[in-house]
Amino acid sequence: QVQLAESGGGSVQTGGSLQLSCAVSLGYSYNSYHMGWFRKAPGKEREGVAAVYTADNSPWYADSAKGRFTIAYDNAKRTLYLNMFRLKPEDTAMYYCAAGLPARVLDPHEYNYWGQGTQVTVSS
Fold first, then answer.
1. Which residues contact 18 (CB under 8 A, 6 or more apart)?
2. What integer pLDDT is reported at residue 30 of this predicted model?
3. How does pLDDT run across 33-70, given as a tens digit for each residue?
4. What percent of the chain clears pLDDT 70, i.e. is strictly above it?
């Protein structure tokens, strides 16, 4: 059984920082797979923020995240991280981590397993 559990969300002011974590428990053994962070703001569709290939930590970023967010996977801890800097009000959303074997790494429809989400709120 696959379980993903996010933590680290909260409320910050514009320009602040947050670190999101996602603890991964897989009911099967995979040597490598993709993990991603996605977000959904009210009235908007879920969108990809960043993704990583667990075998070598190769990252992908949405344009909105480039230069401000960093994604990393710690294989020893089975934990995915998203470090977010210089946060903006438009980053306010529910953030989800996901795991899978996607063809398009920032497309949420390509991921099979999802966490419950953690809320990030950025005030101006």
1. 8, 9, 10, 12, 83, 84, 87, 120
2. 63
3. 899 999 999 999 999 999 999 989 999 999 999 999 99
4. 96
Amino acid, res. 64: S
- CA nearest 5: which of 18, 23, 19? 23
- Whether the CB-CB separation of 27 and 116 falls below 8 Å is answered with no
CA 33, 87, 104 angle in degrees (round to 5)? 25
Q: How far apart are CA 123 and CA 117, in angstroms?
A: 19
Q: Is 73's pLDDT higher than 80?
A: yes
Strands 118-123 and 10-13: parallel
> Which amino acid is present at 11?
S
User: What does the DSSP assignment read for the chain?
Assistant: --EEEEE--EEEETT--EEEEEEEE-SS--S--EEEEEEE-TTS--EEEEEEETTTTEEEE-TTTTTTEEEEEETTTTEEEEEE-S--GGG-EEEEEEEE--SSTT-GGG--EE---EEEEEE-
